[in-house]
Amino acid sequence: MLVLMFQIGDNRLALDIRRVREVVPRVHLDRPTMAPDWLAGLFVYRGHPVPVLDLHHLLGAGECPPHLSSRIILVPLEREGGDERLIGLLAAQVADIREINANAPSMPSLDSSSQARLGQTLVEGDTILHLLDLDHLLPDPVRKRLPPP
Amino acid sequence: MRWRLTDYSIRARLYVLGVLAFSSTLIVLLAAIYLVYQYRVEGPRHIPIKYKRMTRAEVAPPSIYLIELYLVLQELETLTKPEEIRERLTQVDELAKQYDRKYAEAIERLTNSTFRRRMENEIDRTARELIRVARTEYLPLIGQPGMQAKISEVLRTRILQAFREHRKAATEMDQALQREIDHLDEQLISDARTSLFWLAVVSIGMLIVGTLIAYLTMRGIVEGTQVLIHRVEEMSLGTSDLTVRIPVETRDEMGRLAEGINKMIAKIQSIVLKVRESSIQLLSTASEIAATAREQEATVQGFSSSTTQVAAAVREITATSKELSGAMNEVNERANQAAMLANTGRSRLVSMEATMNHLVESTASISSKLAMIREKADNITMVVTTITKVADQTNLLSINAAIEAEKAGEYGRGFLVVAREIRRLADQTAVATLDIENMVRHMQEAVTSGVMQMDKFSEEVRSGVGKVAEINGQTGKIIEEVHGLTARYCEVNEGMKNQAIGAEQINEAMASMASNIRQTAASLEEFKRATDHLRSSVELLNQEIAQFKS
Amino acid sequence: MNTLPVVTDCWNQIGVRGDHSCPELPRVVHCHNCSVFASAGRRFLNAPSPDGYLEEWTRRLAAPIEITSSDLTGVLIFRLAEEWLALSVLVLVEVTLPRPIHRIPHRGGILAGLVNIRGELHLCARLDQILGVDRSEVACSISRTGRSLERLLVLHREDERWVVAVDEVDQVYRVALNELVEVPPTISRALVRLSRGVFHWQGKSIGLLDDERLFQTLRGRLR
Q1: Residues 6+ away with beta carbon under 8 Å from B286
Q2: CATH assignment of C72-222, among 2.40.50.180, 1.20.1050.10, 3.40.50.1110, 2.60.40.1120
């Protein structure tokens, strides 16, 4: 399957592009007061406000570097009630799309919380990838704390 | 006191004499002049006589006309021709007129009243009577025929009578006049004689007196002078006693002369004494001079040797100055060469300076070009920014394209290809931009280093220019110095020449001095001789003076 | 700009622009295909955003997308000699740079030859001949950078694929079919026949080709 490659800290991550609506460049984010750390801010996308999560904060990898390749990955999330809402994931080195073998050898996931968040670990060529599991990345408590659309 | 002629000065006496002589001569002269004046022809004594004679002469002419008249009347007696008669009648009228005229003149000239009256009364009366008679009694008869006898009668009686009366009157007057004249003449002569006589007397008298006085005066003078002459002759012989004086006996000029001579002798006496003293001094002086002359001789000798030394020294100086001159010439040449080289070097320096200035300009232009390159690099950087954006967006586009293609499923397959192509394009763009960035960076680094090097180079060039300018200035100074040297050399040369000339002059002076020394030596010799002469002369003088007793 | 140091620029040293000594070169043929090249390109983007970039995109993304009317047809506008033409994108596969067209001996006419695109041979037709457009007198189309503007259009309809050469390709334009006006009779008969109509764009009259008829013609000429 085709995956979108990006980097969080020292980890190379991948995301099934079927889960991706669009990748947009980094923009100014409006940070509401009393927002949690992992909420980078809000921006207006085609007339609608979209919350942006800083994956670096979520995964405990510091700050997202202010590069050109640091982009916002727009993913639709299913909410309770069936309608979906668009959220943005701020990540670094969002510049490559690769075809990976879904049946590639993977390492068993370890029992750490971060590992749980990161998702499945894959080996692709000479690199170790982490296949991001959005559902695990964003547990309910986090989702609940998202600003209303 | 006795009155003596000699008491009066000779001068006075001579004056008197002179005056006397002069005055007597003057008197005599004046008298003679007076006499001459008086008795000269046309003089005051002579004039009356002359007048009288004139009167007598004056009286005559009218009568002469009457005589002629009478003659004509006589002629008329025998004439018969009318024309001759007419002619003679005319003549008679003429003569009558002329008598009138002459009479008038004579009357006018007669000053003596006596004679005038006489003239009028006697002569004129008779004359007129004659004329009247002629006119009235005679002339009418003329020409009348047959009257010949009457005519002769009248002529012989009446005319002749009248004529004779007239003639008588005239003669008497004439004689009277003559007697007057004679009288006057006699008087004149006797007066003259008398005067002359007295003149002679006076002259002789004066002469005697003068001679007397002159003789007396002369005698006095001669006597006096005799004494003086004697004394003076004595003196002139050189054997006289200077102490003796002439006795002064008179108070006139001779006496004074004697006194004067006495005084003169006294003076001479004193002079002689002084001369004696002086001669003594002279002798001593002559000895001193002789001594001095000997000293001078010695000095001259020393002088001579000194001049020889000086001459030798001068020759050395000349030789040295020639050497020095030669050396100076060399130095000058060298200096000139140095100056030439300096000039050449300077011109090279100038060109070098120009080159360096060019360099500076070039470096400036290069620096500006580098700056331009840097600017361009910056511009490129700006462009690179744009291209980077493009690369970024292309990359993004490729991602989104892939996403869309995937969503499109089967239909999106072709689009995936496109997406891949786009990604590759983005990579190429990115790499190209990277390359450009590198190039720009390299360029900037090169530019920076180039600029730094340029600056360094520029600095070096500037300092080089400065150095060149310095060297130029120094070279210029050198040239100036050399020129100054040349000028100095000329000065020194001049000095040398002057020195040589001076040495020459010294030489000549030495030579002339040497000759002078020789002359001096010779003249010293003469000097000594002169001194000896002097001494001998002084001795002679002494001897001479010794004759005088003083 | 790019703060990361350049790790390598093997494409300039041992690659196609260098001395061709890269061991990967025989495998990838061109550096562009090499993963090292690609990752260099990706890494290039790991640089801070330029000034104003964020603001620009914030503005752009905020603007709502224009809803396009559905009755607009996408057409590719291109130029053939003096004529500006358009072709529906539905029949277009690709626009590519000119490639060598290998002539087929003994076959001329509208057939220009065979051309290799992405490893597949396609038939190349002379569109100018088909449309009756005179291409001979047109000067070489050169862009501002000195490159040729000529392009090859890869067409496909159902199972037929054709490649045609055009002088310039402009852009894909959405045209409303009711904009089309009648084709003026001054152009060639063939063109009149094969055009659906004319629309105006940027001051030019663009002739929209009838793709169905075009393919018919192509098919017909081929036999």
Answers
A1: B531, B534, B535, B538
A2: 2.40.50.180
